[in-house]
Design a protein that fits this description.
Elements (H helix, E strand, L loop, with lengths): L1 E9 L3 E9 L9 E9 L2 H8 L15 E9 L9 E5 L14 E4 L5 E2 L6 H23 L8 E4 L5 H12 L3 E6 L5 H7 L3 E4 L1 H4 L10 E6 L3 H9 L1 E9 L13 H5 L3 E4 L7 H14 L5 H4 E5 L3 H9 L6 E5 L3
Helix pairs in contact: 1-10, 2-3, 2-8
GO molecular function: acryloyl-CoA reductase (NADPH) activity
Protein name: Acrylyl-CoA reductase (NADPH)
């Protein structure tokens, strides 16, 4: 028996998430069975738990798009009992039971070894948020954006992806401008490495097709008008990495930045990203992330706290990352 968050939907109770105890025989199919050490609470997990977004595709579902754990049994040629492993994405917590539980059974092809230099808790402090931020930084680098070219805008800077994007870019020598709706968190963002803080309201309303050129690059986790305005103010030849939709899935923009300034819009998908790219991103995280900042970015909660904290996360009241110790 093991503890888990379970999401159910039926004609009697409607949509609900509850903390419960499950039998290991109920675990879905997979060739690797894990003892989960830590998971996380991400924006997507919060949507799944609250039902405020169409995240869950099958019911019942154990949410949790991240997990770090120890292999208990394996039929995979890549892993054996005792191996420490990590998972981000692959539809886990959406179509296959995820990490907000003390046990998981998964397809071994979705796992990578726990990156050298990380404990399970540290890997979950980074989680999908930090991994997505690193994929975004790699996209800027791949398109030739260098620190010498000018300022980099990070939107949603107080969130998980934004916090890591600020920290990584600053460590790499970029001039970071952090956009946030919580100006009281300016000291936090400056500690991560932001050189300037701007109010998100300057980007979140409808704007012009083209604005004054300012950004050499952008990492955006909001979408909607914020993404459109970021593109409109990106300098000639700059790159905008888009990785989220916290403001909205819409993109109310024109083609002007792309055909008049040669701006590149680079989409970042962390869910189905190929294994080799995942490993490369985690290797860069091990090299470029100041692990001493993790305590600043991260808060730890117990499994039973995940449900009430989901609403807080969607309301924008959570700073940085929430690591879930599934065993307390």
């Amino acid at each position: 028996m093991f503890k888990a968050i379970l999401i159910e939907k039926d004609d009697v109770v409607g949509y609900r998430a509850r903390s419960t105890t499950l039998d290991e025989a109920q675990l879905p199919e997979g060739d690797v069975t894990l003892r989960v050490d830590c998971s996380t609470l991400n924006y997507k997990d919060a949507l799944a738990i609250t039902g405020k977004g169409p995240v869950v595709r099958k019911f019942p579902m154990v949410p949790g798009i991240d997990l770090a754990g120890t292999v208990e049994a394996s039929a995979s040629p890549d892993f054996k009992a005792g191996d420490q492993v990590l998972l981000n994405g692959w539809g886990v917590g959406e179509q296959h039971w995820g990490g907000l539980a003390q046990k998981a059974r998964l397809d071994g092809r979705w796992l990578i070894p726990l990156p050298r230099g990380f404990t399970a808790r540290q890997a979950m402090a980074v989680g999908t948020a930090g991994y997505t931020a690193m994929l975004s930084v790699l996209a800027l680098e791949r398109h030739g954006v260098t620190p010498e070219q000018g300022e980099i805008l990070v939107t949603g800077a107080n969130g998980g992806v934004g916090s890591f994007a600020v920290a990584l870019l600053a460590r790499l020598g970029y001039q970071v401008v952090a956009s946030t709706g919580r100006p009281e968190q300016a000291d936090y963002l400056k500690k991560l490495g932001a050189g300037e803080i701007i109010d998100r309201a300057t980007l979140s309303e409808p704007g012009r097709p083209l604005a004054r050129e300012r950004w050499a690059g952008v990492i955006d986790s909001l979408g909607s008008h914020t993404l459109a305005n970021a593109c409109a103010a990106t300098r000639y030849g700059g790159t905008v990495a888009t990785c989220g939709l916290a403001q909205g899935m819409d993109f109310p923009a024109t083609v002007a930045p792309f055909i008049l300034r040669g701006v590149t819009l680079a989409g970042i998908d962390s869910v189905m990203c190929p294994r080799a790219e995942r490993i490369a991103a985690w290797e860069r995280l091990a090299r470029d992330l100041d692990l001493a900042l993790l305590d600043e970015i991260t808060r730890e909660i117990g499994l039973d706290e995940a449900i009430p904290m989901a609403g807080e996360l969607l309301a924008g009241k959570v700073r940085g990352r929430l690591v879930v110790d599934v065993n307390r």
